[in-house]
Amino acid sequence: MSLDTKPLKAMNYIQIPDYVFERMLKTLQKGIEVCYNVDYSSEITEQSPSYATGYSRAAMQEVIEVLNRYKEQQN
Hints:
Radius of gyration: 18 Å
Number of strands: 0
Structural class: mainly alpha
């Protein structure tokens, strides 16, 4: 077993306003909720697996875009 002896890099921090952070949390929580509500026997579009897949993917993409935007602003 080898120990990594490289020096640690200084940590950088990205500031995100509370309201943006809360919106990202709600976006991700709603994506999880949509996934939990999948009903394979339902004919309701909002309960279908394909809807949940698309919704959760869009939610994650939105959060990534917001985080990248803040990261770029801070650099």
